[in-house]
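Continuing the batch. This is chain 6 of the set; chains 1 through 5 are on the previous pages. Same settings as before, nothing changed between runs. Recording input and output for traceability.
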Amino acid sequence: MTYEQVLLDVVENIAVIRMNRPSKKNAFSPTMSVEILDAMTRIERDDGIRGVLLTGVEDSFSAGLDLDISFCQTMEESNASNFRKVMDPILAWYLKYYEMPKPTVAAVNGHCYGGGVVPVSLSDVAIASERSQYALSEINFAHFPAGGTTWAVSHFLLPKHFEYLCLSGDRIDAFEAARMGLVTKVVPHEQLENEAWRVVKRLAGKHPNAYRTAKAMCRMTPRMSFAEAIKLEMAHIHENYFLTEGEMVKVALKQFKEKQIKTGTGEDYKRGT
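Output for chain 6:
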């Protein structure tokens, strides 16, 4: 599929999405958002795709929402219909990305500001270039981080960290982002794509149903009491057994005991290698 502002390639069962508006630091336009949403929908429906790697072209991951051609224009028009046409695709692909049952890895290659911070927060794993920089700068122009931004950072950072980002508008470097928990790890810039590829391939090798369930538990149980989490996890043990056709007990654990394979290698279960 060819897009105007997004590059989509499927390589070795991994979908690689590159946001492609270098002249605008890969800021989200309505066109880009519609294209990312379409790409996410295709990826979700294709069982042959086992993981997603999201990054940007040239020196930027994404500068967030393109204020010039979208947000400011529709606000000045006071046209609710046009405003929704701008915002709905962005919010829809954020949500689809967050709920993606497959592994999602962000390779943060450069500038990452405003709404660009959201997919970094929502990714299962975020690998950052040492050159990358981050900011929620909305407060600096009489606004505030919106469109799911405060939710995203508040769920993955400590209160004093996400409040600092939201309230100061200050820019931080990759190492500070890692210290705060915004990204998983920082690597030399020239190693970024190789490391992000290694991680997404490793995650994609897990059993897809087991990964889906484990990811759901990681997202759901922090908002529960300990007792509630135990009940939910115990219920999903049976669901996972059913969805994997008993592979956990009949194949995987048997192979683990016999030291034939490492656990969690997905298709290796069926091959018995």
